[in-house]
Design goal:
Four copies of one chain form a homotetramer.
Chain A (H helix, E strand, L loop, with lengths): L10 H14 L8 H17 L6 H4 L6 H25 L3 H15 L2 H4 L8
Helix pairs in contact in A: 1-4, 2-4
Chain lengths: 122, 122, 122, 122
C-alpha cells in the first residue's frame, strides 16, 4: 500500500476506497442510511468506551501510549468509514458539509465572546 | 469561501481548519479525548435520530429530499468535526487509520465468502 | 436468590441492590453523573448493535430465539443498571420521572390525533 | 395522579403504563426491537449531552440544582421508557435481567479484588 497520509489524501479518494470495499461484497442492500447511521453511533460508543472511567485530564495521557493510541485510531476509523459510506449512499460532499458547519459555528460562537468558555452564562 | 469539494480537499486541510476554529476560541482545555469522544457519540445519535422511526427502505428516500439531505449533511459534519478535533489532539493520521482499517476488514471479510451477506451463518 | 420478578419488585429494591454492589467495591468515586451517563450510552449502543443489520420486521424475530433473547436482556440490564446508579447518585425517583414523562407525552401526543402515526404531517 | 414513588411501584406497573400508552396510539407497528433500541441510544445520548463539557466533579453539582435535576430526570425517563417498551415487545422480565446481571458482575468483579479500582492492572 502506498504511503497515503492526511496531507495528500482527499476525502474523494477515501470515499472511493469505501465504495469499492462495499461493491466487492455486494453490501449495498445493507447500507441504508438508517443502518449506516446506527453503525456510526455504535462505533462512536466503542470509541467513547475507551475513556469511560477516566477523568478528562487522564484521558489526554493516551497521546503518549502507542498501543492505546492504535486502538483509538482504529475506533475512529470505524466511525469515519460509516460517514464515508453514508456520504456515498446520499451523494453528500462531506468536505463542503464540514466547512459549511465551521462557517456556521464561527457565527454562532463569535471568538471574542466565547474565548475560553463554551457557554455565555458562566 | 472558495469552492473546496471532496475531490480536491485533503484531510490535513480540514484538520487545520478545525484546529484554527478551536484555537481562536481557546477551547483546547475543553477538548480532552474523553469530551471529544462524547461529542462524537452525541452527534452520531442526533444523526441517527433522523432515521429513528422509518424502515430501511424509507430511509433511502432522503436522497431525494434536498431539505432533509441538508439536515443530514449538517449532522454528519458535526460527527466529522469531533473526529478531526480528536485527530488533532492525539496527533492521529486519520487517513492512514481509515486505510489500515479497510485493509484489515478486507482480510476479515473476504469478498468471495461475504458477498451479499454480513454473517457466514446465514 | 429468591424469585423476584417484575410483578413484585419495586424500583427502590433494585436501586438498593445497585447501591450495595457499588458500596461493596468503593466505586462511588467513579460514579459521577458524567461517567454514569456515558456508561448508559455505551450499553445502549451495545444493545442496538444486536439489531444493526436487520430490518425492523426481522428484529422482531428475536422474541422467538431464547439464546438471542438472553443476550438482549443482558444488554438491557446493563443500561438499566446505569440508570439505577444515576438515580442513586442524584437522589432521583425514577418511577415518578417515568410516570411524569408518560403524562407529559399523553398531552404532547393526543391519542386521537396520533393514532397509527408518529408525525402529523404524514 | 396518585403518588407512586420508587418505594411502592413495581416494574410490572410501569410496563403496563407504557403498554397502555402505546396501545392507545396504535404505535405497536413502530415498536420493533430495532427501533426501540435506537430510541434508547438516542435518549441516552441526550442524557449524556448534559454532561458533555464538564469535569466529573462538576457533573456531581447537578445534584444541588433542582432545575437541571428535573431535566436530567426527564432524559432518564426517556431511556427507561424505551427499556420498558422493549421489555413489553420481547416479554422480558427486566427485574430478573437486572438481578441476574448484578449476580454475574459480583462474580466478575470480586469485591476484595476490585475495591476502589475498576481494573486490576492499575
Amino acid at each position: 500500500m502506498p504511503h497515503m497520509p492526511d496531507t495528500t489524501t482527499t476525502l474523494a479518494v477515501l470515499k472511493e476506497a469505501m465504495r469499492q470495499f462495499v461493491a466487492e461484497r455486494n453490501w449495498e442492500p445493507f447500507h441504508s442510511p438508517k443502518n449506516l447511521s446506527m453503525g456510526a453511533a455504535v462505533e462512536a460508543a466503542e470509541l467513547m468506551e475507551h475513556f469511560l472511567w477516566v477523568d478528562n485530564e487522564t484521558s489526554r495521557q493516551v497521546a503518549g501510549d502507542p498501543e492505546k493510541l492504535a486502538e483509538i485510531a482504529d475506533e475512529m476509523a470505524d466511525v469515519a468509514c460509516y460517514l464515508l459510506a453514508l456520504s456515498n449512499v446520499l451523494a453528500i460532499d462531506l468536505t463542503e458539509a464540514i466547512l459549511a458547519k465551521l462557517a456556521k459555528n464561527a457565527i454562532k460562537y463569535p471568538a471574542e465572546k466565547y474565548r475560553g468558555r463554551f457557554r455565555l452564562d458562566e
